[in-house]
Amino acid sequence: MAAPAQGASGTLRGVARSAPHRLQGLMDKLRAVVHGTVLLLIIGWVLTAGKQIFVPAVLGAVVVYIIVGLAHVLGRVPLVGRHLPLMLRYLFSIAVIALAFFLLAYLITANKDRAMALAPQYQQALLAAIQQFAVQFGFETEPTWATLRQELMAQINLQRLFTALLASVGSILVTFVVVLLYAVFLLVERRAFEAKLANLSDNPKQVARIRQIIGTINRRIGSYLALKTLLSILLGAVSWGVMALYGLEFAALWAVLTAFLNFVPYVGSVLGVLLPGLMAVVQFQEIGPILSLVLALTAVQFVIGNFLDPYVMGNSLNLSPFAILISLAVWSELWGIPGAFLAVPITAIVTIVFSEFPGTRQVAVLLSKNGSI
Fold it and tell me: Distance of alpha carbon 157 from its chain centroid, rounded?
């Protein structure tokens, strides 16, 4: 009986000795979680406080990625791509981006006066549409409907709404000038970047690892943004054709906005149909043309987004759809509309960087689409 008793006492002593180590390990994990949470809060505060500085700089980097990515895509064009000088491809990429923004600026300037002149007419058309809807569904018999309609139209002033919208878009165009300035300096800095990278450390293995991480980021983000730009141009052109066929007012402006909104995941596709649809409501006032236009634009978004987009881009970023939605909400809260455009590239960069370190690799796996990083 003494031997079993001795073995049991030894087991108890082993458990007693291991308990402090387990407790210490638990406390270390808890401390790491607390430190990580505090660090995330500090980073969030810095990003919010420095929004006016960070947003143009990051957008400038995105523009550079698009320029370089488009240049590489042009180099892969059959027959002519290999014979195009690199500088010529860069100039063509810069011209495409500049043309897109100048086209948006021109359309806003050209349509501003017409939008202001038609705003009262569209406001009356919207009121007529609401009245027609109320009569069809029997709401007009309700004694509170007239009051409700009056209060609703008191809140809706399309002229003031158009003015605010054009002012916000105008401020975006002013910001673009700053973004373009950042992009130009970043393009100039690219020449010396390799030399700077080589002198970051005396350890060749560490330099090689940094070069590999940056190369992966440049390859994935550049390819994604370049192909997304080409698909957005195609989406805008097809959407313009559909809207012009129906005779929708400001079709070119809506088409350019649709192309830009295509960079915003999920929400951009909805807005690309919703905004022209609302314009159709106040212009046509008949359910037939409105419904057919919305269905046609939805079909365009569906075909390009669900068939052409995956075929061309493949799984270039390997991001979970849920992670994209969360990043869209987070970056929109931090940086507003620019944050919505930057959510996917920033999340992809974070995932790539996290995958290179053991402590954050698990987070990168959760952010990925299929767990392969």
Answer: 30
Which residues, 6+ apart, have CB-to-CB distance to 202 below 8 Å? none
Find out whether 340 and 328 touch, Cβ atoms under 8 Å.
yes
Structure tokens at 361: 């690799």
CB atoms near residue 175 (< 10 Å): 15
Tokens of 194: 């390799």
Tokens of 4: 């079993």
| pLDDT score for 5 | 52
Report the distance separating Cα 111 and Cα 248, nearest Å: 13
DSSP 187-223: HHHHHHHHHHHHTS-S-HHHHHHHHHHHHHHHHHHHH
State the pTM of this model. Answer: 0.76
Look-up of token digits 């057919």: 292
What is the spatial distance between Cα 111 and Cα 208, in angstroms, rounded to a whole number? 53
Q: CB of 368 within 8 A of CB of 351?
A: yes
> Which pLDDT does position 130 carry in this prediction?
66
Handedness of CA 290, 295, 296, 297 (dihedral sign): positive
Q: Are 84 and 75 in contact (CB under 8 A)?
A: yes
Terminal-residue alpha carbon distance, the chain: 57
Distance (Å, whole) CA 301 – CA 238: 10
Long-range interactions of 40-43: CB distance < 8 A, separation 24+: none
Amino acid of residue 96:
V
Read off the tokens for 359: 């402590």
Q: Is 168 exposed, middle or buried (0-12, 13-18, 19+ CB in 10 A)?
A: exposed
Angle between helical axes of 2-49 and 51-75 (0-180°, round to 10) = 90
**pLDDT by residue (tens digit) across 122-139?**
767 666 666 666 666 655
Q: How far is CA 89 from CA 74, 79, 94, 219, in A?
A: 7, 15, 9, 17
